[in-house]
Each structure stands twice: as structure tokens, then as C-alpha cells.
Amino acid sequence: MKQTLARWWDSDVAHSFRSSPVAIVAAVIAFICAFCAVFAGWVAPHNPFDLTTLELSDARLPPAWVEHGSWKYPLGTDDQGRDILSALIYGARISLIVGLVSVALSIVIGVTLGLVSGAKRGWIDAVLMRTCDVVSSFPAILVALLIAGVARAVYPNAAEGVAFAVLVLAIAFAGSNGWVQYARTVRASTMVEYGKEYVQAARVTGVAPLRIMRRHVLPNVLGPVMVLATIQVATAIITEATLSFLGVGAPPTSPSLGTLIRIGNDYLFSGEWWITVFPGVMLVLIALSVNLLGDWLRDALNPRLR
């Protein structure tokens, strides 16, 4: 284990990371957000979803440094008396889980279809690529709204688990921001790999096509997928926040950052700015840090920039 860590520390990627202050700051911010989200039950000062602990008399309190604020609620409270800081931590956990799971589903679908399309060619490739063209022609948010709306119409009283599953599916299939980019990227890389000598040698020696695809081609096309996935996590989180802001995302009983922004938007012009500003800042920090890490990883894995 120590030797593996030592080799990684001396690698070009680790050196690129150590020499990039932007990547270090982005990694620290992303780590803090992820740590607080994963361990929300221990980090958050209150449980904002425990109705027995809410006090309506503490509703719409300003941040602690503002007049009439209280250090019991450092970032203030919302219209239900929930601690904004605690709601941010729990909401970030929901947003991160939905974003990561939706990206993972997009990778599975896109990589599989891209491998099949690049390896088989012919009519299979034509059908899959035309499908990608059709899906990409629709705005991502409209596709996600359509999927979420149809699911809500079919299952109007769906449980939270079903609601989150629908949200993940809506983001994973959301036009060009979902599986389509992975399919196109992997298809192009697969076509390049199938033209190389090691694949030709494996085919001549009688290696099964599925084994060639799984053991030889797949590991060599995952580099661009990793970079794309890092950037797509931020896009998925923003899409989830948009859907929740429009009322078709996370259920109200488990609000994400988008839901918190939507709730605070009703009080923005009445002076309670902190209800919507702090969730917005949290969303920007998460998306920006992940995007900066994705940009650094893209440059670090690009052999032309070494």
C-alpha cells in the first residue's frame, strides 16, 4: 500500500496537482462539502427534518452577525424555523447523492452503447448514433421535466425512494448532458483502438469479441470518461437543483439545495435574503470546485500538455 501511494505521489498527475494552487483549493472545498454531506448526522448542529425540534417562534431569524440574530442558528432560519446551516448540510448530501448516482448510470449506459457502436459499426452504429442525435436535439432540462412529469402522473403518491429514482433517471437521460456524451466519446475512442495492432492480433488469434471489448478496449477508453464524469457531476447537481427549484425534483420532505433555493425565493423580496442566498452560495461552491477539478484532471491527463 505504501509503495502504491509513493508511486502515485511521484507520478506526473500528482506533480501536476501539487503545482496547481487552483486544483488544491478546489479539492479542499470539494472534500469539505463531501465530508459534511456524508457525515451530516454528526456535523450538522440540528436535524432540520425532525419536526419535533422545530420552533415556529424561531422562524425567519437572520444570521448571527445581523441584528436579532442568534448564534444558535449561525446562518439564520427559514420560514419553518429550520436551521439554515443544518439544512445546507443535509441538502448538499441529497444533491451529491443524486448527482453521483445519475452520472454513474449515465456512464454505464453511455460506455456500453459506445463500445457496441464503435466495435460493431454498420447498422447498429447508425441506429445508435441517430438516436444520440435525436436525444441531443432536445434541451436537457425539457427531457428531464418530461420524464419527471410523466412519472409523477403515473405514480402521483410515490414514496421518496421512487421519487429519487425518477429524479436520477431524468438526469441520466437528460439529452446531451446525460449518457449521450459518454456514448459518443467512447465510440470515437473504440474506433481508434480497434484500428491498432494489439486488437488486430487478438482477433487473429481467435479471442472472443466480447473479451476483446472488455479486457483490451475498455481499459484504454476510460481516460476520457473519467474526465467527462468529473465535469458532468457538477452539471448533474445543477440539473437536480433546477428540477427541484421547479418543483419536480427532490420531495419536500427531503429538500435538496434546489428546493431550499425555491423556498427562500418566496421571501427574497421581503428582506429574508439569507434563506435563498446561502443555499445558492453552497450550490455554486460545489459546482465550481468540481468543475475546476475536472478542468485540472483534463489537463493533467492530456499528454500534449506534459
UniProtKB/TrEMBL annotation:
The chain crosses the membrane at residues 21-44, 94-116, 137-155, 161-180, 221-246, 273-297. The keyword Transport applies. Coiled coil: none annotated. Belongs to the binding-protein-dependent transport system permease family. The keyword Cell membrane applies. It comes from the Bacteria. Its main location: membrane. Residues 92-294 form the ABC transmembrane type-1 domain. GO terms for cellular component: plasma membrane. It is a multi-pass membrane protein. Keywords: Cell membrane, Membrane, Transmembrane, Transmembrane helix, Transport. This is ABC transporter permease. It is found in: Cell membrane. GO terms for biological process: transmembrane transport. Pfam families: BPD_transp_1, OppC_N. It comes from Diaphorobacter ruginosibacter. InterPro entries: BP-dependent_transpt_permease, MetI-like, MetI-like_sf, OppC_N.
